[in-house]
């Protein structure tokens, strides 16, 4: 079942930055997105249309999205460069967020342009307490919200990816049952999400738990090709967890450049698995990631982490000679 090809969703500019107190300028974020695309990251979660009071880092979401789409449109109008435009997505919690994202896209490319926003991600949780703390509503209320939101996105020809957070453990409730994850995953798929990213928000999973969860979902009718994994490396198990998920056939993974990441509403949630580490391991395993410029990825990780006053948290950046 081991996939020959893996797709990476680069979430560093969203999950990576949302927990950082140092605000990165819109201009720099746009430049980082362009560099990531040029280095071979084909799928970039760019920013988040949440309340700026909840996450001040994304007060500039409209500007970042509009500028990035404008840049992408310019690139695709240049003959031969079309292939290098990445797939851009943004996190959206509600209709207000969707409206703002659509307005930013329309201001950049006109409402009907094929170069506009084509994908968003919504986010639910497998635990009630985390749902309350993260998005201020119960799981069922969040599903009702998404039931209204998803058709609006689809009407604009926008694909919807769904996150389920806290699938292995919750900072408030502790262990989360397999059936809670199954219920929310199924509900989001039925509402029209094309893929569900299962989040180990506080990094408590082990490979055994990954196998157990994926087998439970599969036994209950969820297709492995409908799933992605989103690991946080809080306790150093993220790459081992990736391997367990590979053995179950999962071929899409979220990763964050420089290993940045965390959730302001999950105490103790630290960085996502670093893109650089994931790319190194999968490449060494002979898995096809498309064309990736590895030394440039490390430079981007160094630069993004430096921009928030940190050093690169990936393992490979500690041992690779300066590229
Ligand atoms: P609420 O307070 O229930 O919403 O927040 P509300 O509708 O009552 O609105 C309250 C205020 O927020 C109002 O402003 C709204 O206009 C404003 P006021 O009138 O008080 O000045 N507002 C918005 N502003 C901008 N954009 C919007 C928006 N919506 C309302 N879209 C809400 C509900 C979800 C909006 C809020 O709780 C929120 O923004 N939370 C942020 C959650 C977040 O960003 N969490 C981190 C991302 S999830 C994650 O990291 C996990 C993941 O990585 C996977 C994993 O690791 O597991 C995905
Ligand atoms: Mg996360």
Provide tags for this entry.
metal-binding; binds magnesium ion; 10 strands; 12 helices; binds 3-hydroxy-3-methylglutaryl-coenzyme A; metal ion binding; two-stranded antiparallel sheet; alpha/beta; hydroxymethylglutaryl-CoA lyase; hydroxymethylglutaryl-CoA lyase activity; lyase; 323 residues
Explained architecture:
This protein has 323 residues and is of the alpha/beta class. Helix content is 44%, strand content 15%. It contains 12 helices and 10 strands. The chain has an 8-stranded parallel barrel, surrounded by 8 helices. The protein has a two-stranded antiparallel ribbon with strand order 6-7. A hairpin with a 3-residue loop joins strand 6 and strand 7 (174-175). Helix 2 (26-38) runs parallel beside helix 3. The site of magnesium ion has 8 residues, from loops. It catalyses: (3S)-3-hydroxy-3-methylglutaryl-CoA = acetoacetate + acetyl-CoA.
Uncertain regions: pLDDT < 50 for 5+ in a row?
A: none
Describe the main β-sheet briefly.
8 strands, parallel, barrel
Give the termini distance in whole angstroms.
35 Å
Gyration radius, in Å: 18 Å
Bound molecules: 3-hydroxy-3-methylglutaryl-coenzyme A, magnesium ion
Spatial sequence of strands, sheet with the most strands: 1-2-3-4-5-8-9-10
Overall geometry: globular
The overall average pLDDT, rounded, is 94
Helix run count: 12
What oligomeric state do the depicted chains represent?
A: single chain
Q: Give the strand tally.
A: 10
Strand content: 5-15%
Question: Helix fraction?
Answer: 40-55%
Tell me the series of helices and strands, N- to C-terminal.
Answer: EHHEHEHEHHEEEHEHEHEHHH
Helix/strand class: alpha/beta
